[in-house]
């Protein structure tokens, strides 16, 4: 299974691609899609850059599934609205390219990768490096995206094992405590 992880952000959206074969994980690619208002780009143009960038990543690496981080409200309402628009753009790009999307909170991501829900960025980077046997630390946004791939690979194995015993249906309603899967 090839997994595409997306860490949404308006200025910097991280992406990571990992192949999962059973419990084995193999790094494929990672990077960021950058937009900046300093370049004179207005919000709609920046969202188009994100949409097109994710489309390029999907076309190049041909993932079978995507995982995206669920973002929460922060102190600045304007920043939260902008981040929400960027995240919506990312989700739209993934679905427009025919990918099923799983969503995970930052807490779920950190627990799955580091084992501690309040881990900092440096701990995430180090664990992603170790788990994927990378020669160096990935960037912060790319590390989160790769962490989403790792998280989804773990969840997919667990769901597959559960489905062997008692088949389940994907939830199609609003958020539930364990994350969202569509």
UniProtKB/TrEMBL annotation:
Q: Which family does it belong to?
A: Belongs to the RuvC family.
Gene encoding this polypeptide?
ruvC
Name of protein = Crossover junction endodeoxyribonuclease RuvC
Which InterPro entries has this protein been placed in?
RNaseH-like_sf, RNaseH_sf, X-over_junc_endoDNase_Mg_BS, X-over_junc_endoDNase_RuvC
Q: What is its EC number?
A: 3.1.21.10
The organism of origin for this protein: Hydrogenophaga luteola
Q: Does the keyword Cytoplasm apply?
A: yes
Tell me which residues this entry annotates as catalytic. Answer: 7, 69, 141
Q: Which residues are noted in the entry as Mg(2+) 1-binding?
A: 7, 141
Q: Where in the cell is it found?
A: Cytoplasm
């Amino acid at each position: 299974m090839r997994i595409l992880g997306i860490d949404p952000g308006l200025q910097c959206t991280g992406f990571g691609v990992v192949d999962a074969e059973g419990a084995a994980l193999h790094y494929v690619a990672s990077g960021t899609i950058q937009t900046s208002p300093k370049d004179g780009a207005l919000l709609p143009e920046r969202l188009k850059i994100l949409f097109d960038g994710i489309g390029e990543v999907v076309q190049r690496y041909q993932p079978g599934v995507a995982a995206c981080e669920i973002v929460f409200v922060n102190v600045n309402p304007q920043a939260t609205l902008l981040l929400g628009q960027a995240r919506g753009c990312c989700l739209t790009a993934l679905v427009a390219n025919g990918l099923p999307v799983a969503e995970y909170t930052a807490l779920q991501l950190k627990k799955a990768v580091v084992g501690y829900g309040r881990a900092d960025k440096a701990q995430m980077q180090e664990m992603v490096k170790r788990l994927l046997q990378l020669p160096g630390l990935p960037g912060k946004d790319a590390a989160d995206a790769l962490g989403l791939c790792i998280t989804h690979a773990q969840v997919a194995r667990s769901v597959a094992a559960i489905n062997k015993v008692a088949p389940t249906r994907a939830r199609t309603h609003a958020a539930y405590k364990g994350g969202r899967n569509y």
